[in-house]
Design brief:
The protein contains 11 helices and 2 strands, in the order αααααααββαααα. It is mainly alpha-helical. It has one domain.
């Protein structure tokens, strides 16, 4: 089955990209607030707007042209990185990992596959941030980490937070799985989006991993599993 993106979603997505691109380009000229207000703005405004783009693109998960679009977006993201164009690069990377995540989710035979991944990957992510490759990139190779992450700029500051590309990838995988297998897609989108804000807030006020940030996948996985736990249990029982 293949369906084009509805015109309303295309228009909303284009408008949202324009608004976010303007914010990314001009954020240093905006208001300068304290840490608490910055955390609240990013958690409840900026991240929901950013993650609204995968939601708007959700109907494309069944499109026949999605593999071609994914390849073009990956190529565009690489070129933007080489050209040191961070603003278009951020949106190209988001589009690329979203498309790849949708394609990955299409390989699942049931929602239980996504649930199994949600149970396993947080442990891998925590280890990677604690003493694995993510920690090395964040603390020793910031230049390389920027290529494998998407920033969310802080208003009034040059600084920006960032989420790794795997975080966006698994967001797309879980969102597409929720939509495909009859889970609570809207609630799943909301809880997963808020999970990133919660992780960012914890990272802002704690230093558990010694300057390497916090792993985002544990709370993301919880944001997928908890709203759908009853339906996942029901599907597991029927599969037996």
């Amino acid at each position: 089955m293949s369906a084009p993106l509805p015109v309303a979603r295309l228009a909303a997505g284009a408008t949202l990209v324009a608004v976010l691109a303007a914010y990314f380009a001009l954020h240093e000229r905006l208001w300068s607030a304290g840490l608490g207000l910055d955390v609240a703005f990013v958690a409840f405004v900026l991240l929901p707007l950013l993650f609204a783009l995968p939601w708007l693109a959700l109907p494309a998960r069944t499109a026949r042209w999605l593999p071609v679009a994914a390849a073009l977006l990956v190529a565009g993201a690489i070129l933007a990185d080489l050209a040191e164009a961070p603003v278009p690069g951020a949106f190209l990377k988001l589009g690329a990992v979203t498309a790849v995540g949708f394609l990955f989710a299409a390989l699942f035979e049931s929602a239980l596959w996504a649930a199994a991944i949600a149970i396993v990957v947080p442990w891998i992510d925590a280890w990677s941030v604690w003493r694995g490759p993510t920690r090395h990139l964040v603390t020793k190779r910031q230049d390389l980490f920027s290529s494998f992450s998407i920033p969310f700029p802080i208003p009034g500051e040059h600084a920006a937070g960032a989420l790794g590309l795997p975080d966006f990838l698994f967001f797309a995988v879980f969102l597409a799985s929720a939509a495909r297998f009859g889970l609570r897609a809207r609630l799943t989108w909301l809880t997963m989006t808020l999970s990133f804000g919660a992780t960012m807030a914890l990272a802002a006020y704690t230093d558990i991993f010694g300057g390497a940030g916090l792993p985002a996948l544990p709370l993301l996985a919880a944001g997928f599993l908890l709203p759908n736990l009853d339906r996942l249990v029901s599907k597991a029982r029927r599969s037996r």
